[in-house]
Amino acid sequence: MTSPEIEKMANMESEYWWHIGKRYLVKALIKRHFEDKNDLNILDVGCGTGALAKFLTDFGSVTGFDMSAEAIEFCKSKGLNNVFVQDVSTLEEAKHSKKFNLIVALDFLEHVQDDILVMQKIREMLSEDGLLFVNVPAHKFLWSEHDEALEHKRRYHRLELTKKLNDAGFNIVSNSYFVTVISPLIILYRAWGNIFGKSAYPKTSYVLLPKKLNDFFVTLLKIETWVLLKTFIPFGVTLNVVARKNKS
């Protein structure tokens, strides 16, 4: 990610509907799979500018990795100390073997060239009873300037993601689409941008919304989280997967 996009994320992630909804989803998944534990050893892979990592400190000890030194500086400005500039693709994962109860890789795998290699390294760092939470952007037809600005390598089909996780040594606990209700608006906005709004220097499609509308979108994502915990959601612009190590 470019410096302007990193700064934009740092400025928006505390209040922007998508980031709030993502944190709410993670909290719900932790409560489902770990009950009320607050002593987890957590790794936030691709921790970005730190809002999620800071949020996760309510549930235990948090380590953060990110490839951007600038992003890590934003993390430290939030009081996070156990954060490191680290390309997971080159990580000597044996140093962290079976260390973490929970690894979150939210909006991260789409940034790495060899995603299966990274999944394998994550598997090595996960404890035998640990879980991996994954969020990635869905649907290749939604590729847009937004993806280029964020330096994505790909968007995912659900079967592609679950197959790659299986090949990397994971069993799928649950998988579902997310960000569903407002997906038609996002699809139209991206399509319009692809046809009429391409710029010489790619930029993200984050749009600051009036507070009432932003809060309404947050409410929609909270409702979607409740549905996701109960059943499979067949469409959305994000994929969410929970996986555990295949012990065979």
Tell me about this structure.
The protein has one domain (3-245): Rossmann fold (3-Layer(aba) Sandwich). The protein contains 9 helices and 7 strands. The protein has 248 residues and is an alpha/beta fold. The N and C termini lie far apart (38 Å). It has helices at 3-12, 17-34, 51-56, 69-77, 115-125, 145-149, 158-167, 183-196, 211-228, and strands at 40-45, 60-66, 83-85, 100-106, 126-137, 170-178, 238-245. The longest helix is centred in the N-terminal third of the chain and has 18 residues, at 17-34. 41% of the residues lie in helices and 21% in strands. Strands 3-2-1-4-5-7-6 form a 7-stranded mixed β-sheet, with helices on both faces. The mean pLDDT is 90.
Outline:
With 248 residues, this protein is α/β, with parallel strands linked by helices.
Write the layout of secondary structure elements.
Elements: H1 3-12, H2 17-34, E1 40-45, H3 51-56, E2 60-66, H4 69-77, E3 83-85, E4 100-106, H5 115-125, E5 126-137, H6 145-149, H7 158-167, E6 170-178, H8 183-196, H9 211-228, E7 238-245
Parallel strand pairs: 1-2, 1-4, 2-3, 4-5
Antiparallel strand pairs: 5-7, 6-7
Helix pairs in contact: 2-9
| CATH classification, class level | Alpha Beta
Helix content: 40-55%
Provide the low-confidence segments as ranges. none
The biggest beta sheet reads: 7 strands, mixed
**Large-scale geometry:** globular
* First-to-last CA distance: 38 Å
CATH architecture: 3-Layer(aba) Sandwich
Pick out its properties.
41% helix; alpha/beta; 9 helices
